[in-house]
Structure formats: structure tokens, C-alpha cells
């Protein structure tokens, strides 16, 4: 699975890239039909308590899957986003297996 990163108003972080890539590869090991992931990191200046946003869009057969989270730290946002994606992937895998 290929992983692409986009930073919007945030400095590029190789550590964050490695952390996110590792998490996504674990996901692709479980769901072999994943093709690619687009990861976007943004900062919301208006939010005082959170504001670190992670968007992930997964490309796979059928419609794409998207999730986002807004947390105090990017690592937490990545974990939450991947948790949401995993829920969606479980549902998608169930629909594949029932056909």
C-alpha cells in the first residue's frame, strides 16, 4: 500500500510520517484489499483546546473510505482516525464476505 502525506499549514515531520505509515501498514496487513492512503495533517488556529487535525482517505475497491479526527496531539488524532477507519473496513469486509 502506498501512503502519501500532505501538510496544510504545519511543518513536515518525518517522525509523524513514520508513526502513521507503521499504523497504516498494520491495517493493510489485516485488510489486503487496500490500495493507497492519503494522509492530511492540518492545524485549526481557532480551536484552543484541540486543533490538531488528521484526515485519512483510503483507496480500495468500491467507494473510498474517509475519516478525520481533531485532538490535542497529532499522534492521538492518527490513532483515533485509524480506529474509525478500521470500523468502516470491518463493515466493508463483511459485505464482501456475504456476496
UniProtKB/TrEMBL annotation:
It comes from the Bacteria. It holds the Pfam family Ribosomal_S30AE. InterPro entries: RHF-like, RHF/RaiA. This is Ribosome-associated translation inhibitor RaiA. It comes from Oceanihabitans sediminis. The lineage of its organism: Bacteria, Pseudomonadati, Bacteroidota, Flavobacteriia, Flavobacteriales.
Amino acid at each position: 500500500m502506498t501512503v502519501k502525506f500532505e501538510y496544510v499549514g504545519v511543518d513536515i515531520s518525518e517522525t509523524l510520517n513514520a508513526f502513521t505509515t507503521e499504523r497504516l501498514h498494520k491495517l493493510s496487513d489485516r485488510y489486503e484489499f487496500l490500495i493507497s492512503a492519503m494522509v492530511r495533517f492540518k492545524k485549526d488556529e481557532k480551536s484552543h483546546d484541540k486543533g490538531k487535525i488528521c484526515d485519512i482517505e483510503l483507496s480500495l475497491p468500491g467507494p473510498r473510505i474517509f475519516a478525520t479526527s481533531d485532538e490535542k496531539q497529532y499522534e492521538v488524532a492518527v490513532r483515533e482516525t485509524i480506529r474509525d477507519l478500521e470500523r468502516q473496513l470491518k463493515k466493508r469486509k463483511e459485505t464482501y464476505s456475504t456476496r
